[in-house]
Amino acid sequence: MSIFLLTTAFVVGFIPTLFTPFTAPVDASQTAQADRYAAEVLAEITQPDSKNVLDGAGTDSFFANESNLDGIPTAEQSEVNVTLVDGNGTVQHTVGPPYQGESTAAATRVVVPESGYVGNHTCTATCRIEVRLW
User: Phi/psi at 98 (nearest 5 deg)?
Assistant: First the structure.
């Protein structure tokens, strides 16, 4: 009976570790880097006199060319994905390699569309800028 209990305890204690992901957890410096990166992205795509009103043409230009990500420095070599999501959760724009569920540092900012803008995104009331680094 004791061998059965010992075996059961081993299985219950050991097996769950086989299914955990083999990725390093996100630390505070990576989260801070994602916040800084989000601030830089906002400076690129919002109107100069407002921190949360999208500049329609600037937003379209930023998301049209992946090389725009290279202009924003990162402290360490990281993959970066920036996504504009409307209030319904529909992706409007994305730039950078696709996020595949890796362990990631993320920052999200809420923005509003430029009044009267007609262009490549259809945000009506609010949108989210999601920045992921891994």
Answer: -65, 140
